[in-house]
Amino acid sequence: MAALVRLVRRLSPRVQTVRFCRSNGHKTDDLLHNEAVQRHIKRVIDEQTGISSRLESGQVTESDRRALNLRLVEMSKVVHAFEKTQLALKELTEINTLIHKTSAEDEKMLLLLREEHEELSRKVEKLNKELIETLVPADDLDSRSVILEVAAGRTTGGDICQQFTREMFDMYQGFSSYKHWDFELFNYTPADYGGLHHAAVRISGESVYGWLKFEGGTHRVQRIPEVGLSSRMQRIHTGTMTVIVLPQPHDVDIHIAAKDLRIDTFRSRGAGGQSVNTTDSAVRVVHLPTGTVAECQQFRSQLKNRDTALRLLRARLYQSSVGRQKEQTHAARRQQVGTRSQSERIRTYNFSQDRVTDHRIGYGTRDIKEFMRGGEALEEVLRLLQENQEREALLKLVQNNS
């Protein structure tokens, strides 16, 4: 028994107290035990066997052989991941059997068995997640850089929204540093009292869109203002800000004809509307066929502002194009579960209760200041959103194939 061999290797004179996870269930078990998912895995295994047989027969053309080999690589990833999960589950079952057979008087052995049980439970969960990843087709956009914009809400909250927008901007800058991404500022329009009206940045690095695509939407803040009557009365104000996350297109993704553009120049403006530049270096680009607008006033060089505005415009047009393509596909589902688009509230930051709540997955966490530093706490909720998306994508895949 593999589990018993592992356990014997761990034996030592030292006895440690460990926590025993009494539940044999795993977060991913229900999904992988779903009948449709099981049938899908069986189809993949059967397809791998069939492809291997065809290749071994030698009765295929050279072009078919290349196509079959590519397909075999995809199938083999799933089968290999599935076999690893089955082996780990077998070991876990062996440990469970040993626990039930071990006398309560043998405390040292029970502690070691329970420690092994907990380690194997974590291994099974990890392998289950890897299996789900191999079953779900990768999103081609996940590896791309993004253009991220933050904008204060215009109808509610006033200074609360602008202050919160600046804090959100700082959070994404902190997260970029935490993930070792490049953070390139395109536009930054400050508000009075240290707030922020709007900012746009380009974030580049490994799998940026794969992480940040879940941040697009309306973020709500609830807090007591620092000054004024509401502060003295401890009255909670509510405000909103919006995050827009656009995968940055490659130049080949979308072509913009020069005749379809109108390019205006103007003087840069700072907080309160005062001019901060004596030359017309700021640039506004309008795509005439769609009315899409992008502008940049971050740099003193008009040429650099123009180039940046064009990059931002290209990303907005690309996102609009992708949205139109997906519109019909998601129409039926949207009527039942909502669009989860960027006009819907996705997360609430309640400073009075020191709590952050993500409404899409019912996730809540304390220590709001730590969360907004943009480190491990933000990474945790984004990882949970990734896993939730993979589960939904897998269920949709097996339903379409059943």
TrEMBL record:
GO terms for biological process: mitochondrial translational termination. Keywords: Protein biosynthesis. GO terms for molecular function: translation release factor activity. The keyword Protein biosynthesis applies. Residues 324-343 are annotated as: Disordered. InterPro entries: PCRF, Pep_chain_release_fac_I, Pep_chain_release_fac_I_sf, Prokaryotic/Mito_RF. It comes from the Eukaryota. Pfam families: PCRF, RF-1. Residues 267-283 form the Prokaryotic-type class I peptide chain release factors domain. The keyword Transmembrane does not apply. GO terms for cellular component: mitochondrion. Belongs to the prokaryotic/mitochondrial release factor family. PANTHER family: LD18447P, PEPTIDE CHAIN RELEASE FACTOR 1, MITOCHONDRIAL. This is Prokaryotic-type class I peptide chain release factors domain-containing protein.
